[in-house]
Amino acid sequence: MKIAIAQLNPTIGDIFSNSNLILEAAKKATVEGVNLLLTPELSLIGYPPRDLLINPSFIVAVGAQLQQLAQDLPPELAVVVGTVVPNADGVKLGGKSLFNSAVLLQNGAVQQVFHKRLLPTYDVFDEDRYFEPGENSNYFNVGELKIGVTICEDLWNNEEFWGKRSYAGDPISDLAKLGVDLVVNLSASPYSAGKREVRSAMLQHSVIRSGIPIVYANQVGGNDDIIFDGSSFAVNRKGDLIQVLAAFETDFAVLEYDENKQDLIGSGNRQDARSTTETDLSCEPPFGDAEIWEALVLGVRDYVRKCGFSKVVLGLSGGIDSALVAAIASCAIGPENVLGVLMPSPYSSDHSVNDALELARNLGIAIELLPIGDLMKTYDRTLADLFANTTFGIAEENIQSRIRGNLLMAISNKFGHLLLSTGNKSEMSVGYCTLYGDMNGGLAVISDVPKTRVYSLCRWLNAGGYVGAVPSSPGSEIIPANIISKAPSAELKPGQIDQDSLPAYDVLDDILQRLIEHHESVPEIVAAGHDEVVVKRVVKLVRQSEFKRRQAAPGLKISDRAFGTGWRMPIAKSSSY
Fold first, then answer.
1. Distance CA 99, CA 417 (A)
2. Looking at residues 414-429, what average pLDDT do you find?
3. Residue 375: closest CA among 423, 410, 350
4. d(CA 40, CA 185)
5. Can you tell me the mean pLDDT for 76-91?
6. Strand 418-421's sheet: what is its strand order?
7. Which of 273-287, 406-420, 484-498 bottoms out in mean pLDDT, i.e. has the lowest?
8. Continuous segment of H or E residues that includes residue 489
9. Short-list 457, 334, 448, CA closest to 466
């Protein structure tokens, strides 16, 4: 029996276009003699649909489109589609109104429906808000083959793998008791750095434990702040990874289930076979800087496309953060669609302007030069009486940033460009950013990228890590060397550098990672070798800056603990502990 994985990039809410993506994959599968086609979780509506699910007319439209898709599909092909299914009876008993479901379509109709049992409510997930959990695991037949169905989180409740007990049930064990020959999983598993390796190792463990091979179909693409890496794969009964689909792009692959061997085998469609007994069943590169780069490029490209933009604008300061964002944007949508704006003040150094100009030449992007010195003088005159007998300080410094933010927003409004903000995670963590200034924007591209990783990505770019969308000759630098080597500075006053206000970034980023991602206490961070005074100051800055982050543009998530959807800290709170 031939099985195809359609690794799709749906647009949330665009049920007609998403239906066409499934139909196109089905036609391709039919040409290749496929018996069963798998699509990702909620492939008909896109994941995560969030409060679209509260709209009754949307749910009615989804149901109608599902019926139409069933009629349009090649009748002999079995297709498993991710969608939502109403829970009319459950509502009467106080349950949720919907199920997150996988639906088997064949012969022009819905043949079977399978409901997701385990509903994640952590990090970016909030499925318990919308869905009723399924009560049982079940399977369908293709010929004599019993194929068990799971949806995303149903595979993540492996007590042995995670080393902790759960009371939510174990769908894989339940399917094993039903005697299934194969398990399929429809997934929308978001990307974070290193997650693909964990995902593969977990499913390998599940296969070896249960003795049942698994085919895993994951969504790909960027939806708001969440990036989905795809990286769908199949694991045979021995735990070998026999098929891997591309990371960060749509893909289609065919594999076979050999009924004599009672196992999955690769098929001729770009097989990526690998036999191993190790727990690390990670997909092939990209990894590290390359992996993060590909994720950010995909996130920007899809955010621009799915929000209806064609061009972007950003401020170019001559610093490393805006340089990286400009390079990502150039790769994502083409340098011809990127506008960089230089807005030097009297405090801007000549090398910053020159570095920004050189970067723009390297990338091939358009630039505009808008000096802000006269605007600063106008603000000074307007505020002179009110600010009389006070000392020059943060208020005056931030005016520069807010002037720049206003100019960028004016350009965005006038020409319909999406404004990209350029702050990194280190700055966002401690509030080293200005509301209504450099925080202005529709997308915060690197707000989950620590400053040390920003440097690493830029060095990787210059070492030839990625040149496909950047017009540069072999061996030439993309990010001007001076941008990487000079001390980082906001240049809001004479001689200013970031380390006047912050610890060295390698120190700061280690403290922040321990605090934000590992939830370590002050004593634990100090015990790791950090100065107690510095740690307490950083912790205080993080807690005090929550009001800024609440007003920030959505930022692309690449870590396990990103500011945004999955970060739910109160603003008004005690910081005494």
1. 38
2. 97
3. 410
4. 8
5. 91
6. 366-369, 338-342, 312-315, 418-421, 443-444
7. 273-287
8. none
9. 457
Q: Are 75 and 108 in contact (CB under 8 A)?
A: yes
Mean of per-residue pLDDT scores for the chain: 90
- d(Cα 441, Cα 439) in Å, to the nearest integer? 6
Cβ pair 367, 360 in contact under 8 A? yes
Quote the CA–CA distance of 481 and 518 in Å, as a whole number.
Answer: 34
Angstrom distances, CA of residue 319 to CA of 180, 315, 509: 57, 10, 18
Token reading at 433: 């950013």
Beta partners for 486? none
Task: Give the list of residues 6+ apart from residue 18 with CB closer than 8 angstroms, or none.
Answer: 8, 10, 11, 43, 44, 45, 46
- For every residue of 255-320, DSSP letters joined together read EEEETTTTEEEE-SSS---B---SS--PPSSP-THHHHHHHHHHHHHHHHHHTT---EEEE--SSH
Please give the backbone phi and psi of residue 573, each rounded to the nearest 5 degrees, phi first. -155, 165
Judged by DSSP in three states, 30 sits in: helix
Tokens (6 digits) for 31: 């040409």
Q: Catalytic positions, please?
A: 41, 116, 152
pLDDT of residue 280: 33
* Helical (H) or strand (E) element with 396: helix 394-415
Say what the pLDDT of residue 282 is: 31
Quick: pLDDT tens for 269-324: 443 433 333 333 233 334 589 999 999 999 999 999 999 999 999 999 999 999 99
For residue 143 the two structure tokens come to: 């010929």
Tell me the three-class secondary structure of 325-368, residue by residue.
Answer: HHHHHHHHHCHHHEEEEECCCCCCCHHHHHHHHHHHHHHCCEEE
Q: Which residues contact 194 (CB under 8 A, 6 or more apart)?
A: none
Residue-level pLDDT at 272: 43
Burial class (CB in 10 A: 0-12, 13-18, 19+), 93: exposed
Nearest one of 232, 331, 309, 241 to 280, comparing CA atoms: 241
pLDDT category at 194 given cuts 50, 70, 90 is confident
Burial category of 194 from C-beta neighbours within 10 Å (exposed 0-12, middle 13-18, buried 19 and up): middle
pLDDT over 80 (residue 497)? no
Residues of the chain above pLDDT 90, percent = 79
Q: How far is CA 545 from the centre of its chain?
A: 23
Look at residues 221, 189, 192, 217 and name the one whose alpha carbon lies nearest to residue 297.
221
Q: What are phi and psi of 345, to 5 degrees?
A: -110, 175
**Gap between the Cα atoms of 576 and 438, Å rounded:** 30
- Rounded average pLDDT over 497-505: 81
- CA–CA separation, 283 and 247 (whole Å): 8
C-alpha distances (whole Å) from 25 to each of 141, 183, 243, 333 are: 21, 21, 18, 25
Q: Between β-strands 443-444 and 366-369, what pairing exists: parallel, antiparallel or unpaired?
A: unpaired
Which is nearest to 440 in space by CA: 469, 408, 483?
408
Residue 459, classed as helix, strand or coil, is helix
> Cα separation of 491 and 319, whole Å?
10
Residue-wise pLDDT for 115-146, tens only, equals: 999 999 989 999 999 999 999 999 999 999 99
